[in-house]
Design a protein that fits this description.
Arc Repressor Mutant, subunit A, two-stranded antiparallel sheet, alpha/beta, about 300 residues, single chain
């Protein structure tokens, strides 16, 4: 494992994205990360407003959505999610589909559908696996020949793409907490930042020098530092709230199971007592004693039996 001796402490990347990343002068930080992730130079033209990246009263899950328009007229959704969601995969699918529909004007041909790339930085496991970066895309494969569907020459010229996959949404899932801190390339350096809030002095990935400069805690103004500290407290409070809800749910589930078991046992006990009453070989007091219940309980069951 590579050892680090000097580093610059930086603010959490989600805080930067949520509260600071609105000025074009800050675009170079995210441009650097996306260029390393997508392995091509990314230039951000603007941030597109949508329902997903506006702060609302419902915004209580520390979700950060930024929709970006690139120089290539593509749409990139960048989302940072702290709290676990079991249906997160469906949510990123919904986000990509919604972005597509929001950016297709009424009456426009489907040829004008924008390419969407979804990038999620999450602090929980989105599924079962042993990696920390996952990539998903759509590939059309022949059911019988197993041949991959290609675009015609006319389509290639019209769309300026090589194959159908290039037209479809792409998904990147980065599970920050699954990263083992073994740095092998530029992407690992960025993920190290996401996980540890540090930029080591020997990191050289594109954009990290700008990130270290703009995200440095030591360079925050007094007001920004207070805002950042308050944000960290809110994360702790949110985590405590989630843990409390989890414990409450477990307790309720346990009580429900106990209630179901008790109800089943009572029904079984009633059947045993009713059979004993029907045989009429024992007195009510003897039946109560045999089943370790009160005489009143047996009398109540007997009364219900006679009324039916």
């Amino acid at each position: 494992m590579e050892k680090f001796t000097k580093f610059t402490e930086v603010v959490r990347f989600d805080w930067f994205m949520k509260f600071m990343f609105r000025d074009k002068r800050d675009f170079d930080v995210l441009e650097g990360f996306l260029s390393v992730l997508l392995k091509e130079d990314i230039t951000i033209i603007e941030i597109l407003e949508s329902e997903s990246n506006q702060e609302t009263k419902k915004d209580k899950f520390n979700r950060v959505d930024v929709m970006i328009k690139t120089l290539k007229n593509e749409r990139i959704i960048v989302e940072i999610q702290n709290n676990e969601e079991y249906d997160y995969l469906q949510r990123i699918l919904y986000g990509a589909c919604k972005t597509i529909t929001q950016n297709l004007k009424k009456g426009e041909a489907y040829a004008f559908v924008k390419k969407v790339i979804s990038v999620s930085i999450v602090y929980f496991e989105t599924g079962q696996g042993n990696d920390y970066v996952y990539y998903g895309r759509t590939v059309f494969t022949g059911l019988h020949t197993h041949q991959v569907l290609l675009l015609t020459d006319t389509q290639k010229e019209a769309f300026q793409k090589e194959n159908p996959t290039d037209l479809m949404p792409e998904y990147y899932l980065i599970q920050a907490l699954s990263f083992n801190d073994l740095v092998n390339d530029g992407l690992d350096e960025w993920i190290y930042l996401f996980k540890n809030n540090k930029v080591e002095d020997n990191f050289t990935a594109k954009g990290l020098d700008k990130a270290k400069e703009k995200l440095a805690v030591a360079k925050l103004s007094k007001k920004k530092r207070q805002e950042y500290e308050q944000y960290l407290k809110s994360l702790h409070s949110e985590a405590s709230w989630n843990e409390t809800q989890r414990i409450k749910a477990e307790v309720q589930e346990k009580l429900l199971k106990e209630e179901i078991i008790k109800d089943a046992e009572n029904k079984l006990l009633e059947k045993v007592i009713i059979r004993a009453l029907i045989r009429n070989k024992l007195t009510i007091a003897e039946i109560a004693e045999d089943n370790q219940v009160s005489v009143a309980f047996v009398q109540e069951i007997n009364l219900k039996r006679l009324e039916q």
